[in-house]
Amino acid sequence: MTRECSLLLPRVCAALADPRQPGSDDTCLEKLLDWFRDLTQFDPTVNLLQDNPCLMEFIASMLALPEPSASILSFTLRLAGILAASENRFQHLQQEKLLVRLFGRDGPLNSAVWEDASVRSGWVEGVHSMMHHQPALHFLCNGGGIDVIFTLQGDPSLFVASAASQLLVHMLTLSVESETTKPLSTKDCDWPACAQMIIKRIEDSLQSSSASHIEQSLKLLTSLFGSCRATWTEVLWLGIAKQIESFLTEETVQAQHMLANLLLNMAWSPVFCDTEGSFWALVTSALEHLTPVQAGPLAVGILRLYKCPQDVRIQALTVLLQPMDCILRAASQPLEYAGLLDESVSDPVTVENLLSSKSSCASLLCQTLAHLEELLSLIRLPVDLPYTSLLRFLMTILQFCNGFLSPASPLGSTISRILINCFRVQRSALDVLAALSERKGCDTLIGSLFDVLLAYLESPNTSPTVLKKTFQATSKWLVRLQELSCSNSQWQQTEKILQDVFLVLQKRLCSPCWEVRDSSLEFLTVLIKCLRDQDEFRQSLLSSEVPRLTENLLEDPESYVRASAVTAVGHLAFITYFAPESPVIGNQYNKENTVAKLQEILSTDPEGFPRRAVISIFTKWLRQGCTGQLEDTEKFVSRVIQTVEHDLDWEVRLGGLELVEVFCSQTICQLGLPKCPYAPVSSAVTSSIHQNESLQIFCRAKLFSFLFRSLCDCDKPVGQRACDILLGLRGNFYPISTLKDSQGTEDSPAGHGIAWLQRTLRQGSLAQNFPTDGGNGVDFQDPESMMLALGTIDLEELHDELNKSSDHVEKSPQSLLQDILATVGTIEENEADCY
Amino acid sequence: FFQYCLSGHPTLPCNVLKFKSTTIMLDCGLDMTSTLNFLPLPLVQSPRLSKLPGWVLKDGSTFLDKELKECSGHVFVDSVPEFCLPETELLDLSTVDVILISNYHCMMALPYITEYTGFTGTVYATEPTVQIGRLLMEELVNSIERVPKAQSASMWKNKEVQRLLPAPLKDAVEVSMWRKCYTMPEVNAALSKIQLVGYSQKIELFGAVQVTPLSSGYALGSSNWIIQSHYEKVSYVSGSSLLTTHPQPMDQASLKNSDVLILTGLTQIPTANPDGMVGEFCSNLAMTVRNGGNVLVPCYPSGVIYDLLECLYQYIDSAGLSNVPFYFISPVANSSLEFSQIFAEWLCHNKQTKVYLPEPPFPHAELIQTNKLKHYPSIHGDFSNDFKQPCVVFTGHPSLRFGDVVHFMELWGKSSLNTVIFTGNAENQPNISVIHHTLLFQPLHVVCPEQYTQPPPTQSHRTDLMIDCQPPPMSYRRAEVLTLPYKRRYEKIEIMPELADSLVPLEIKPGISLATVSAVLHTKDNKHVLQLPPKPPQPAASKKRKRVSDDVPECKPLKPLLSGSIPVDQFVQTLEKHGFSDVKVEDTAKGHIVLLQEAETLIQIEEDSTHIICDNDEPLRVKLRDLVLKFLQKF
To answer: Contacts of residue A545 in chain B, CB cutoff 8 Å?
Structure first.
């Protein structure tokens, strides 16, 4: 603690303890606690308390108040807990009986303020903080604190209840791990006293008939098994396993819904998953007895496990895939996975009933679909899913939802009636469909899959959000289709599908709904990104009306659509103008027109999104070397940065800097500076000429004025980026050893200007005082001056300055203490504080 | 309760309801699908149509080749188009008392009914219905009359001949009843029989029933009708829509508690998500025009077109179509666009409020002002000077058999750049979902065309698009007479105050009092009134002037009425007290028989009658009668 802080602290404590003062800001109190936590974390000594007697005085004075404010009392409890976290300070506080008075029977616990949830929460947190040593444990157990915590598990405030439960887990672990002398075993379980008390309470409440008590204990066990993987947990489990097993079969207690999480946490613990027999039998029983909705999360959790008996895995898979099975049966689809599902574990009738009810059908399907998506998102799956059936299932659901399937069975027609136009299910199914495209083995169905997808793309009944998901799934499967047709040469099918897709895309690009136009353009961009190397794709695209309609949308009234159109046109250019054998398409936009059009958007569009899109497309073009020879590129970059320099949107300016960065590294690379690892090694002489040449290019392109001005940009990321680029340039032009001393450069006229620049940059006022006409002696287009500037200006210092967070001054503990004093209004010399 | 079903077409209904003593026709829709069997009527000589080959029978006989022409594998009648009228033979239509019209599309057969059948009653409809209906009829008559056709085909209608024809001509119903279009004088005569009504106005029909039109949300002035008497309520739901477009929203609350709900005028088109369809309309339109093609929208001159123009108004600028001309061609285009702006009270709330602002309720006025929308009475004249392509044309008739649309079909039909967009079901067409909504009002019985009880033929699995209610709906088809499943039980009778004053109620059970009434039931105009009976004739003051009043029946003094039941045990005891010793009681299905064996007498006691059967022993009968009466209350 600094001297300033220790001087301020007594006054802060006095102010906080003063009941006449208005309550202090909660965030200030939180920050204060954080500070104390930092102070005490690595220092178990009593120095803090001895050096700052005001702390104990503060606690004592709070205890003396007849009606303390709830928030300050809560703060006091938590502070005392933090202080008592070390055994030494605990004893020190106990000497004054402060802890007993705060946390014991006669403390706030039995006063009227206990009604306030923040006080109860403070009490629990305080106890939790101090619970790091045996004296604290005994202090609490002997003082009857365990009872209080158990009661608080049922607290009306969920924060308090959850914190109480966590506290019990913590205490149990601490007790077992710090007080056991010999390892516990099933035969001889000699629990330490405190653990014994807690376990007894857990066992009692599990055997009680109160649903809420059972629920609390199950929660406690769930978080215990989730956080503690020690072997003694098994000993504990053996004592309660029978009881918990009975919850699965007995209808009297409604605790089933809690069991899935408990079992899942146990399954992840090596203590249980390695065991043979009883635990997995219980999991099997749970899969069997829980309702499909309750068992779903358990099943998917089990399927993610690598250490799991094969039969349990199949049972979990059965639970998860039961709805799929039911849907496929309802649609009279052939089942191709005979023997995969274990019918004994889950009753198909239950699932059928759920799926034929209007209230549960959609939610069960959505849950199943979400679980499938979760599994498919894993890179390595411990289990093989029946991908073909899964795809058939998804297609069936999608066809039910748009009314394209006429099921023969009564169950099918019931489900079809429920699912028609159900957007929720459509969206989930399309998500899974997109995820499924990465998996092999469903290729035989790909033709009919595109029938379904195209029906969705074409139907006027497809809602915009569903359409967007359809586009996503379609793009993924088109990529898959392309891979397939490469291997099996079924070009005709691919070509036909691509034609159909572009036909429907044409229509969607003309939709009156802007969301639809927007997602159509995004879809097109994704397709070009993934497939632009494929000849059939390019041909189908260019022979459709899509490119022309896309360019039309550069003038869309909706700015998001314009932005997406810019991106799409930018990507389209890769296969039209920039492709080696670019087939010229007859329309108003040729390469020059398109560049000019995008330039126009960049300089005149009233909205930020299209301008951002333009600058990022320009950068992309530059990166891919599409902007022509170096000379053209120089002009191009120069034009662009002069446009974005004054843009009001900082992201556009940042995009401009990115463009500059790419340009610099490309130029330097092309001219062969050592910066580029692939460049041929050049002699010192040619290197210096090239240095000059690239420096001259940069000056001609007016890069430096943009970069230096950006250093003082009002938006920090812009300044940081500019500084990084300048540092990079300096690294290229000056080997470390040759850096000039900033002293003594002021002799030359250029030196004067640079000194001014250095000063102005330090003040951060370059943006306001920017020399427009070479005033102040800085010529940003003069290579010599710029070389000098790069060498002299302390860019590192600027870099550090820019990287400091904006509240670095206000974040200090001293400032925090001053703030608290300021808000309580007792500090007069600090009236002019910026807050 | 009878319903005569004169039309089988669910969206062009015509039914007659016999209810109490009235005969009410509900709508008279004209089935114009018959015209699809005829060749189009081109406005200018069409070489393509005139060169079509005549149709030759399989056996090579060519006697029909003047009447029937073959085109793309289909056979068409080369004659003036004819319409399929509602059934006229099922009942004598001159007995129809009133015709209730629900919307302007459902009145197109009106001249055939009012001018051809001896109809003498009244027609009720709202003002916009009549005005727009007149426009539709005018357009129809105009578009057929301006292309006179010399030839009229009738040979093919011969039943023997019709059997030999290919489908769909072979299966066309009642071809002998098909009629040519009516004339303008007939239209005017028919419309003159219409009496204008407003929403929720109560109209008394002969004192027997009251009819009330309610807003149905489908079109300007469209209505559903409530037909009710004191104890019965029939709701007639025709073209209705729950969507919020330009008309006043549907009045649903008043349809509650119906005894019978008759549902018609609704489509079962499943993909009628209106936003999606409008999006589809706009996308296809824009795509065609951008590709350099023309768009033809066959439509009626009123209704959906207002909504489409409104959507386009919002869309064309954003889609960069501001320079594309929109043409609306109809003999009544001008009147239609202007009428729509003046029916403020019939518009939805949103549009009504615009009446108080300096802007018209519909934005098509602005489209016209800015020259984006141009309207013409026909393709001749100004239009041919202004015509610029690519363009969008709205014109009639949607059947594509007559009207200016025929010209554009001939003109643009060959190029695949051009598009025809049919909008009949696009937007505001009443949909079956209304039915599901309406059924929430839990009517006792539902009556509907048989089509509604099955999924649409093209999508047999869409069971969600059929009516499913308990008890199952009664379905009807053309030329069927239904006895509606509702029995009338009560009739309301008024009682005159003086008469009521004279009644003396007697409480026979707690809360239930009875009184005898002697009165004269006076029935006139289906109203029933109980009046004081005439005073018993005074002893004649002057014998000379004695006159028997003929119409008032003579009143006899009344016997008292009896009530209560006879407890058999006590009755037997009483008989024994009075000296009947050999009393025997037998139980029967309806009560008891008390036998007095000695006197050879039977006393039959049943729930609502007691008979004493004895052999000419009047004193005994009287004695027994008095004993029985002791147990009963008199009043």
So the answer is: 287, 290-291
